[in-house]
Amino acid sequence: PDNPVAARLIAKLDTGIVVQGADGAILSANAAASAILELPMDALLGRTSIDPRWRTVREDLTDLPGEDHPAMQCLRTGEPVQAVFGVHTPGGELRWIDAHAIALVQHHGRVVATATSFVDITAEHDAARAAHDSLDRIELLLGETTDAVLVVDAAGTITYADRKST
Fold first, then answer.
1. How far, rounded to the nearest angstrom, does the alpha carbon of residue 70 sit from its chain's CA centroid?
2. What distance in Å separates the CA atoms of residue 86 and residue 129, rounded to the nearest whole number?
């Protein structure tokens, strides 16, 4: 930003901020973006979302093509886009981010840039996946037993009943 106060504030945010031009090239980014993506600033600047080095995936772990990234969708449509996806870092980690892209539109309705804010949600994503996997394993085990199974909370409410208990 032209405003030095705004520039200092954006630089200090824990939220990653990336601004991309109409061609998709990264024009600017803050330190949080660099840290979250594990890329030095000089490796970020000029890179586009369609660069294959990103190696991004959807939540089901299928490849997320660069043209489907929030910033690229936003550049095409001019509409805000939110998405959760995984990014393989140069260090080999799969980092999950929650990204929100908005468009900068000129007077004649032409999209000239996007700004994408994102946060690292890897810990929350991994915890939710582990909890889901645990529930799947418990249900599998309960399905193998010949006994009926009821789970009752402290108030006496049945919170789970398998098919054999009905």
1. 10
2. 13
Instruction: Dump pLDDT digits (tens) for 118-147.
Output: 999 998 888 888 787 777 777 777 667 767
Torsional sign, CA 99, 107, 76, 23: negative
pTM score, whole prediction: 0.74
Residue 18 pairs in a beta bridge with: 29, 116
Contact 122, 88 (CB under 8 A): no
Closest to 54 (Cα-Cα) out of 30, 38, 42, 76: 38
Question: Tell me: the pLDDT tens digits for 83-118?
Answer: 999 999 998 899 999 999 999 988 788 899 999 999
**What's the token pair of residue 16?**
């990653």
On whether the CB atoms of residues 67 and 23 are closer than 8 A, the answer is no
* Alpha-helix residue ranges (DSSP H) falling in 13-121: 31-37, 41-44, 70-77
Element (H, E) at 20: strand 16-21
